[in-house]
Write a structure and sequence with these properties.
Helices cover about 15% and strands about 50% of the residues. With about 60 residues, it is of the alpha+beta class. β4 and β5 form a beta hairpin. The longest helix is centred in the middle third of the chain and has 11 residues. It is globular.
């Protein structure tokens, strides 16, 4: 399995661009985390199922 399987850029909970190397529910999980996150300038990590989601929030955008 590749190291990076999903990436996206979002403003709030709206995904503006995304890429997935394999199929999965990555977008759904990512949006759920964004809905529950404190949207401030920060970095944080969430583990769901067997995947680790790394978030970088800058000027209201999540990467």
């Amino acid at each position: 399995m590749p190291g990076l399987v999903y990436t996206c850029v979002a403003r709030g909970t709206t995904v503006l661009a995304e890429y997935a190397a394999i199929s999965g529910n990555f977008k759904t999980v990512g949006i759920e985390v964004l809905q529950n996150a404190q949207m401030q300038e920060d970095k944080f990590v969430v583990t769901a199922d067997q995947y680790t989601f790394n978030y970088f929030v800058q000027q209201g955008y999540s990467k």
